[in-house]
Design a protein that fits this description.
Length: 296
């Protein structure tokens, strides 16, 4: 890289300037408004079988940033740990109904389970530990991989974007999420062991595309927990760009103490620390997502 990569990620996302991935920033400009006419939500699975790579943080903050652009967004907490629910101020232990009830029962409507959040235009389909039982119980169901697709079908016309926060595994729940989705978005921690697991994940995505959902596409890979001061972070990001090229988003999410604080506050960084670099990074990521999803 021609510039000092430790400093590049401090620069604004100006078109033509070199970004942290070593490529020139595209012209992001202002996020375009939503497309007029009837809605048909783009469904994005936020997936990586490795835990602790920023899936939930990215789900919440990308969703909030997209809502800022005028999109109607639904976040689906599809992790039995209920982290996305906690991150939006919901106590999973106090839920009467959750996505588990929708997956395995026919007597609950999705409108009864969806919760509004404190962010305008952002709704949540919550989860709790009950969801862990679904992995086993779905095994005996007919068309078990299609269950989440059936659950989301009634509300696709209500939203512009639906983002699914997947569990850190490649089990039946994640296969359900990929089968229901139009796109897979892969958060990748800028750390060597996280890089090793991407091949396994892309292989799973390829199998789902071949056997269950031919319309599934990889929307992109976003580097997370990046620290430009360390050679290790920079080298991992460089390797990712070499391996996946244009599939890697120009936006890179840096490490910051603000993200753990937002979890405690139960709100996204776009409202908790609106002018922070982390909030701006997710706004840039939202613009890149919109560039890659022209129908949203």
């Amino acid at each position: 890289m021609s510039k000092n990569p430790a400093l590049v990620d401090e620069e604004p996302a100006e078109a033509g300037a070199q970004g942290p991935t070593g490529r020139p920033w595209p012209d992001l400009g202002d996020a375009r408004p939503p497309r007029p006419g009837p809605k048909n939500a783009a469904i994005i699975a936020m997936t990586n079988q490795k835990g602790g790579v920023g899936k939930t943080t990215t789900t919440i903050n990308l969703g909030a940033a997209l809502a800022e652009t005028g999109r109607k967004v639904l976040l689906v907490d599809f992790d039995p740990q209920g982290s996305a629910s906690v991150g939006l101020g919901v106590n999973p232990h106090n839920l009467d109904t959750s996505i588990y009830n929708l997956l395995l029962g026919r007597d609950v409507a999705i409108d009864e389970v969806v919760l509004p959040t404190n962010v305008d235009g952002l709704d949540l389909l919550p989860a709790n530990i009950d969801l862990s039982a679904a992995e086993v119980q779905l095994v005996s169901e007919v068309a078990r991989e299609q269950t989440l697709r059936r659950v989301l079908a009634p509300v696709k016309s209500h939203y512009d974007v639906i983002i699914i926060d997947c569990a850190p595994s490649l089990g039946l729940l994640t296969v359900n999420a990929l089968t229901a989705s139009d796109y897979a978005l892969i958060p990748l921690e800028c750390e060597f062991f996280a890089l090793r697991g991407v091949a396994l994940l892309t292989d799973t995505i390829a199998k789902v595309t071949e056997r269950l959902n031919p319309d599934l596409k990889v929307l992109g890979i976003v580097g997370t927990m990046y620290d430009g001061r360390t050679l290790h972070s920079r080298e991992v990001l460089e390797r990712v760009v070499e391996a996946f090229g244009d599939k890697v988003f120009h936006t890179v999410i840096k490490r910051t103490v603000k993200f753990p604080e937002t979890t405690v506050a139960g709100e996204p960084i776009t409202t908790y620390a609106s002018s922070s670099p982390g909030a701006e990074a997710y706004r840039n990521l939202a613009k890149e997502v919109l560039l890659r999803c022209p129908d949203v």
